[in-house]
Amino acid sequence: MSTRAAVTENCLTANDWICGEYLRTRAPELTDATVEHLWITVVSVLIGVAVALPLALLARARPAFAGPLLGLTTLLYTIPSLAMFSLLLPLFGLSAALVVTGLVLYSLTILVRNILAGLAAVPDEAREAARGMGYGPVRILWEVELPLALPALMAGVRMATVSTVALTTVGALIGRGGLGDLIDEGVQTTFKAQVLTASVLCVLLAVVADLLLLGLQRLLTPWTRIRRAGEAV
């Protein structure tokens, strides 16, 4: 046996935290878990945005509804994940839909608040100018208000995404947690390399997702860069 092979075998036998042999032999398992983690995160955030936008618009149109709505979404966020999944279990069973639905409900408090904040920050002058050009309410919303609210909206999406990446691991309770399944299995078996590798991948997934969304935000809001450049001058 070569020296290198002996070292890699010893790291598994010694149950080291860092072990190259684990990465080599379990690469397919790590890839599958990462893909599942990413899929659950993306679907949950997209559905969360699709639900949060009309709720935020309703709250803005009917201010009396805003307080109860924000209170409800905040209450949902405070429910422990085990209790949340138990409440949803009769509806969805032990499926990925159970995890996705729970994550969507958790994301609403962040998304609704940020959408409302972004819309509230749109200058009245911009709305008045659009009305003067003959824009109707729907066109003002889609062509004036939402574009100007994008920085706040994207900030909410970034926060919701990072939060969802972390909360997805809780899906390990029902075997639908992506990297969380590997973390839970590693903890149960005291397999150090598996726990550390899956945890690091989870952190990297959150960081990469945040950076990609930040880049998308900068691409979609070029006027914010121009404004900062003008202020710097």
Molecular structure report:
The chain has 233 residues and is mostly helical. Helix content is 85%, strand content 0%. The protein contains eleven helices and no strands. It has helices at residues 3-13, 20-25, 27-61, 63-78, 81-92, 96-120, 124-132, 137-168, 179-189, 192-220, 222-232. Helix 4 packs across helix 6 (96-120) and helix 7 packs across helix 8 (137-168). It is elongated, with a radius of gyration of 22 Å.
Q: What is the CA-based Rg, rounded? A: 22 Å
Structural class: mainly alpha
Pattern of helices and strands: HHHHHHHHHHH
Q: Report the portion of residues in β strands.
A: under 5%
Question: Gap between N and C termini, in Å?
Answer: 66 Å
Low-confidence spans:
1-8
Helix content: over 70%
Note the main sheet: none
Strand segment count: 0
- Spatial shape: elongated
Continuous helix count? 11
Mean pLDDT rating:
84
What's a concise summary of this model?
The chain is mostly helical and 233 residues long.
Task: Fill in the keyword field for this structure.
233 residues, mainly alpha, 11 helices, 85% helix, 0% strand, elongated, disordered N terminus, transmembrane, transport
